[in-house]
Amino acid sequence: MTYQPQFSRADVTPQNLFLNRRALLAGAAALSVAGPALAASPYSTDEAPNSFEDITTYNNYYEFGYDKSDPAAYAGSLKTDPWSVVVDGLVDNPGTYSLADLIADQPIEERIYRFRCVEAWSMIVPWQGFQLSGLLNKLGVQAGAKYVAFETVVRPDEMPGISGGMIDWPYREGLRLDEAMHPLTIMATGLYGKPMPNQNGAPIRLIVPWKYGFKSVKSIVRISLIAEQPVTTWNTLAANEYGFYANVNPTVDHPRWSQASERRIGGGLFSGRVDTLMFNGYGDQVASLYAGQDLTKDY
Ligand code: MTE
Predict the structure, then answer these.
(1) Is 63 annotated as a binding residue?
(2) Separation of alpha carbons 211 and 280, rounded Å
(3) How many domains is the chain partitioned into structurally?
(4) DSSP state of 143
(5) Which is nearest to 216 in space by CA: 90, 123, 78, 292?
(6) CATH code of residue 261
(7) What are the 10-residue block averages of pLDDT along the chain, 299 residues in total?
(8) Of 286, 266, 45, 261, which is closest to residue 175 (Cα–Cα)?
(9) Is 101 part of a structural domain of the chain?
(10) Considering the entire predicted model, what is its pTM?
């Protein structure tokens, strides 16, 4: 079945936290006036998305284990309602927000993005979410803030991968403020027209499509506006392998493997390999963010 990028009538229910009121109204209006499809985002790729099955059964979410199948097997235990997010640091409106309050006035839209893991596999994913810039503007970023830091929830009782292993939890990631404010950077609350599956980072995660997937931190409970570059999980574990920037770059290999091409999940045994694109194909939109930087050093 070919996925049609649109919200279906079944999604337009008040119970669906991942659609806010404005999107509900827009969706209802679109349904009644112009048929079921919302306007496709100019930021979406027209490549065919991977199947829901691909996207929800081949995951990295180490809090639930290290195998690709572990998140689908174990993430069901994560309780995502109620959910709150701490906002702190150099921001006008700090506080502990319920998820509903945090995202209440953010316009949810569909973004079909290429998603490239540093392990050299990729997928096409139809996310639902809103631009992080809209949230940051609502929170009021103060003049001294230069970076945004994110943390994932830590619940050993619900996350069997937390005990043992080498990661110093919580999983942490961060962006420079101009990266965070870029219109391609979204906070995703769903995929394929459904609320975010737990294994993909329910109820809310970051998506930065021009960067390796490890930047796209899942199940966020803390957003901090800070002056200095934040400590991040994979950069701390192996700085020579995982840079802070982590921009997709086919000319800078991982020390242990080439980044020149990638295995497109679901592409079949022999047909699944595709060339990796600079900035994952989003160079026209984002290359200017890095003008003057040496991307072999700032990898
Ligand atoms: N976020 C948390 N909290 N824990 C993780 O292990 N893995 C990262 C990123 N976000 C990870 C995370 C990595 S390495 C990738 S490639 C993507 O999530 C995978 O996202 P997906 O499972 O939705 O494809």
Answers:
(1) yes
(2) 7
(3) 1
(4) T
(5) 123
(6) 3.90.420.10
(7) 43 38 40 47 96 97 97 98 98 98 97 98 98 98 98 98 91 98 98 98 98 98 98 97 98 97 84 92 98 97
(8) 286
(9) yes
(10) 0.89
- CB distance 299 to ligand 1 below 6 Å: no
| 213 alpha carbon – ligand 1 mean position (Å) | 6
Q: Is residue 93 part of a domain?
A: yes
Around Cβ 86, how many Cβ atoms within 10 Å? 15
The answer to whether the CB of 63 is under 6 A from ligand 1 is yes
Instruction: Select from 55, 58, 60 the residue to mutate for testing ligand 1; criterion: most ligand atoms less than 8 Å from CB.
Output: 60
Q: Is residue 216 part of an annotated ligand binding site?
A: yes
| 218/58 Cα distance (integer angstroms) | 15
In a domain, 296, yes or no: no
Q: Is residue 222 part of a domain?
A: yes
CB of 61 within 6 A of ligand 1: the answer is yes
Q: Is 163 annotated as a binding residue?
A: no
Look up the domain containing 52 and give its range: 9-290
